[in-house]
Every structure is written in C-alpha cells, then in structure tokens.
Amino acid sequence: MDEGLVSVVLPIYNVEKYLDRCIESVVGQTYRNLEIILVDDGSPDGCPEKCEDWAKRDKRIKVIHKENAGLGYARNTGIENASGEYICFFDSDDYIAADTIEKTYRAAKENYADIVIFGFSTVDKYGKVGNTIVPETESLKYVGEEVQKLFLPDLISWNPDNGRTTNLRMSAWTALYSMKLIRESGWKFVSERDIISEDVYSLLDLYHSVKTAVVVPEAFYFYCENETSLTHSYKKDRYKRIKQFYRACIDKCDRLGYDNEIKRRIAYPFTANSIAAMKMIVTSDLSIEEKKKMIHTIVYDETMQHVIHQMNLKTESFARKILFFAIKNRMDKLCFWLIKSKA
C-alpha cells in the first residue's frame, strides 16, 4: 500500500507543561510519512520556543505563529497550510497511541473512506489511564444514505428508544479526515467563541458531504484531565450559550435537509450540557440565593421546557428520570437539591 502524506494539526495555547508529551506521541508514530503542523495560537508561555525547538529536531514539523483567535480558527489555519492526503486534529495537552495513523490510514485507503472514527481513553491528572471508550457499532463501514440515516444519529447521542450507545464521540480529535472531502466541501471549523460545543456544530456541516464513514474499534486517543481543564467557576452566560448551540444546530439541520431523527438526537447533548452547567452553578462560589435563582431561570426557560417535553425518557436512569420530571414540572427547588446531592 502506498504511504501518502498525512497532515497532523496541533493547535497550541498555554500547554507548555504537556506539549512535549503530545509532540513526542506524534513524531513517534509507526507511520512515518507525516506533515506535523504546530499552530501556535499566540501562546503566552514557553510554547512558541518549544515549537521552534521541535522543528529543528524533526524536518516533518512546520510551525505557524499567529495571533490568538481560539481553537477553531487555529485548526482552520492548519487546514489552510496542510498538503496531506488525510488530516487529523489533536489537542496539544493530550496524546495518541503509536499506531494511530498507521491503522486509521490503512482503514481509510482500504475502504476509500472520507472519514475514519476511533475510540479514546481518559487519563487523570496523575497520568493514570481510566475509562477506555471503544466504538461498538453494528457495522464498521457506512456508505451513502447509511451515513446520515444510521451513523450520524448514533454519533450525536445514544439511541433514546432503546438506550443503546455505540460509544461514538462527535469530536474533532477522534477521527482521520480526507483532505479531498474538506477541500471540495469548503469545510471549516466554527470558533468555540461563537458556538459552544463547536465540534458538534461544525461536524454537522461536514457529514452532509461524507459518502463513506469507517469505524476502527480501538482506542487510540488519550484525553487528559489537567489543571487547565478543571474549573469551579461558572460564567453567567453559559446556559445562554448552550441554548444558542441547540437552536443553531436545529437551524443547521433544517438548512441541510437532515431528517427529524438527527434533530431529535441534538436534544441529548443539549440536556447533558445544561445539567453540567447546573452542576457548575451549585459547586461555584456564588451565594446560595444566586445559585437557586440561576437554576430557576434554566428550569423555567422556554427552550428547556420545549426540549424536555419532546424527549423520550424511558431509557434514562432512575436518577435522571426524577431530575427530568422535576424540570418538566418546573420544580426548580427540587432540581437544585437533586443536582447538589450529585455534584
């Protein structure tokens, strides 16, 4: 099999402590024909110098320094400067298994795939590998209408009718992408500063053009918990942004002609993000009166009520059923105490 060039894009911002680990995992790939694009997004720490040092050590590395504009635009800069047959996007505070590119590139070539999806493992702040999430799909290849009818809904969320999950994750970093697909569709990432959960929103666009999707049932990516990813602060516009994400996704589905099943599945990341936001509220440094007021606002919100009333809750856990019952019936005080007990 010919070994075509694969572009690996690493957006870099304020990850000096983790950068070497990430780059080492990429340069050490068993697949050697790589173009490694380090996009320094105006990082204020020692990352710019580290990038230049790495470029001197490995001729496959290309460094781009730019003004800070966020993760989405840093990835787009990578796309604009990539010359590979395939491309992938990895976060620079995470790392990948040594055979990631070799196995995903082989799967792409053997199946003429537009996109190859794989699993991941979580890593705690002490470096210990925790949960390993391996895709469990009914098929390893989806072609034509199967991509939008069968694959994409399960990528967005579990099946609410039977509770079955395929362990797929709609994230930029669990995939290898065809550059032909990206070029011909004119696809780019939206900025996370404009749309929260930007990967889901952006990938809805891309999957409209995907003809063949392939699954490799292995966990190649290591998603790392670190100090920069943990916070007890709550930005007061967070739920507003989650609601904006939901509405923007529904509008996009309508524009792209996606069926109701895909729109129905969007409700589940919306509620998951909303519950996460409520947990952040109850564990924040706000006064208890402020916390209760913010929970009240979310529970009584028109979009929240619309989504909750159309959801199929029969496969939810008992605890979730109680919480959703409380939200549905606008029992905001009960919601507060339920979330507080879990948070």
Automatic annotation (TrEMBL):
SUPFAM superfamilies (alphabetical): Nucleotide-diphospho-sugar transferases
CDD domains in UniProt: Glyco_tranf_GTA_type (cd00761)
InterPro entries listed in its UniProt record: Glyco_trans_2-like, Nucleotide-diphossugar_trans
EC number: 2.4.-.-
Record's keyword terms, sorted: Glycosyltransferase, Transferase
Domain Glycosyltransferase 2-like, chain residue ranges per copy: 7-121
Example of a GO MF term: glycosyltransferase activity
Top enzyme category: transferase
Top-rank lineage group of the source organism: Bacteria
Matches recorded under PANTHER family: GLYCOSYLTRANSFERASE, GLYCOSYLTRANSFERASE EPSH-RELATED
Name recorded for this polypeptide: Glycosyltransferase family 2 protein
Species for this entry: Ventrimonas faecis
